Amino acid sequence: MALRELGYRDVRGIDISEEQVEIARANGVEGVERADALPFLSTNLTAFDAIVASHIVEHMPPDACVALLRASAAALREGGRLVVLTPNAGSPLGLPNTFGDLTHVLHFTATSLAQAAALADLEVVHVGGVSPDASGGGVKYVVWRLVRPFLAAALGSDSRYGAVVEPELVGVFRPTG
Predict the structure, then answer these.
(1) 16, 55, 126, 148: least surrounded by Cβ within 10 Å?
(2) pLDDT tens digits, residue range 131-151?
(3) By C-alpha distance, which of 52, 40, 48 is closest to 2?
(4) Helical residues (DSSP H) of the chain, grouped into ranges
(5) What is the DSSP secondary structure assignment for residue 170, as one 8-state letter?
(6) What is the pTM of this model?
C-alpha cells in the first residue's frame, strides 16, 4: 500500500507463511502470495527493479543466505537494487531482536552483512542503521538523538561503515556484473 501511494505500480510481495499472507490481504495489501523466496526469485530472472528482503536472512544458515542473495541479484534488472533489513547484532539496542528469536540462525553486524553480500557477488551501495524518525513520536526521536553519539563513542567502529549502533541494519546492494 505504501509503495503504491508513492507511485509504484507493479508491486508484488511473497512470504513463506500463509498466516502472514492472510494478514497482509486483510490489511488491504494486494499482489501478495505464499511462496518460498529462493525458488520464486530463481524463476523470475531480471524481473525486478528493486527487491526488499525484510527480516529474512537472519533465519537462514550461511549457505542458504548467500544463495538467496545471489538469486536476488539474478532477479534484478540492470540498475536494480536489493535492500536487506535485519536486526543489528553489533549494537546493544539490537541484541534483544537478534537473540530474542529462537528462529534466528545468523546474527549480522554491518561488516558481516557486507561480507554476505560480497560472497553473493553484490556490491555495497550503503550499509547503515535504521534510526527512529520524528514522525513516529517526538520523545523517542529526541532520546535517540541524545543517546546515539554516546553509544557510538562507547562502541567505536568495527568497520568502514562506522559505528552502526541502531537496532536494525539496512543494506543496499547492486549486482557486480
Answers:
(1) 126
(2) 766 666 666 666 666 776 666
(3) 52
(4) 2-5, 18-26, 37-42, 62-75, 95-99, 110-119, 138-155
(5) E
(6) 0.87
